[in-house]
Q: What sequence folds into this?
């Protein structure tokens, strides 16, 4: 028997059951995240923002968005959630260009966490970075996760 009862043939559930459970899981994650975000803001002054920094070949250049001052209003100002209006328009055009052909493209979401309290997470196996990676990589279609220099760190030396 599989450890996930929805995938277990012994239960006799129809094959689409795992697919139908995903929207519920996503709704629970969104609601839980919104509550956690409010609690962290209220008790620790922590602010968490996320914005789209790349859609297909349209890449928001480093330094265009100041991570110290960008606001939720700037991010929420357009449908693609890019804080720079010029690049937001380019991203919308890139999406529309493939959408009319019945295709889709990928992108990158950049997350900013300000005033995160020291010691958040367990120091060995459940470090905050590990928990974030686990949460993000469990989303369908997510293929990468990086913190700090992330993937570009492969181009650096240890000295």
A:
């Amino acid at each position: 028997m599989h450890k996930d009862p929805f995938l277990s043939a012994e239960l006799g559930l129809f094959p689409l059951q795992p697919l139908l459970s995903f929207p519920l899981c996503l709704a629970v994650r969104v609601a839980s995240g919104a509550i956690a975000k409010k609690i962290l803001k209220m008790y620790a002054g922590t602010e968490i923002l996320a914005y789209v920094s790349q859609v297909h070949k349209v890449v928001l250049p480093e330094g265009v968005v100041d991570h110290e001052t960008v606001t939720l209003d700037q991010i929420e100002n357009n449908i693609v959630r890019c804080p720079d209006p010029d690049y937001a328009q380019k991203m919308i055009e890139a999406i529309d260009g493939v959408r009319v052909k019945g295709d889709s493209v990928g992108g990158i979401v950049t997350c900013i966490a300000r005033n995160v309290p020291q010691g958040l997470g367990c120091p060995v196996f459940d470090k905050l970075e590990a928990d974030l990676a686990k949460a993000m990589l469990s989303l369908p279609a997510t293929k990468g996760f990086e913190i700090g220099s992330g993937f570009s760190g492969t181009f650096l030396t240890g000295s």
Q: What stands out?
A: The beta strands are 47-55, 58-59, 107-114.
